[in-house]
């Protein structure tokens, strides 16, 4: 089932998400729904706060980047209760977007290498290192669990220039090809 995506401006996107355990109700179905939602809206990652759940979980699939980065082929994961232990290397720019902030893309600086620990959908523990685009996708989704959005990482002057567009998104003054929850949409508007 395709879930509605929470739009920029919703308070849940600014909360630090909480850990869950293997008995979280409907976890398997939630993960399936999140992948379906991500694919139907042409995303490469989706965090639980973006589907209105303040829990520490996200899904990623970096396969769309495989043409430029072959190791991204088949890089599909659900990450539960992740902890990034280390980020290192020289920061590099990459143009990021977000399903919660439609039609906004900006260059963001991030370190290219990460060391992460997490549980998969079967609650099997993983301790992994990732780099380049795979690290980037994970870092972006991990930020959602910390209440951080990619626009928080752009220079303040650039963010000021985006202010009107971000306000329009929070009010629902935007047309997107997927269902969204807008925090400040006036009653009666569709």
Estimate nothing, just give the exact number of structural domains. Answer: 1
Which CATH architecture would you pick?
A: Alpha-Beta Complex
- Share in β-strands: 25-35%
Mean pLDDT: 95
Q: Which topology does CATH recognise?
A: Peptide Deformylase
Q: Name the overall outline.
A: globular
Series of secondary-structure elements, N-terminal to C-terminal: EHEEEEEEEHHE
**Helical/strand content category:** alpha+beta
Radius of gyration equals: 16 Å
Question: What is the overall number of helices?
Answer: 3
As a percent range, the share of helical residues equals: 10-25%
Under CATH, the homologous superfamily reads: Peptide deformylase
Oligomer designation: single chain
User: Which stretches are low in confidence, meaning pLDDT under 50 for 5 or more residues running?
Assistant: none
Biggest sheet layout: 5 strands, antiparallel
Strand order of the largest sheet: 2-3-4-7-8
- Give the N-to-C terminal Cα separation: 21 Å
Number of strands: 9
CATH C-level category: Alpha Beta
Verbal overview:
The chain has a single domain, classed as Peptide Deformylase, CATH 3.90.45. 23% of the residues lie in helices and 29% in strands. The chain is globular. The model has no long low-confidence stretch (mean pLDDT 95). By secondary structure, it is an alpha+beta fold. It has helices spanning 27-40, 132-145, 156-171; strands at 5-6, 45-47, 57-61, 76-88, 92-98, 101-110, 113-119, 125-131, 180-181.
Task: Please describe the structure with a list of short key phrases separated by commas or semicolons.
single chain; Peptide Deformylase; two-stranded parallel sheet; alpha+beta; 9 strands; 190 residues; five-stranded antiparallel beta sheet; globular; 29% strand; 23% helix; 3 helices
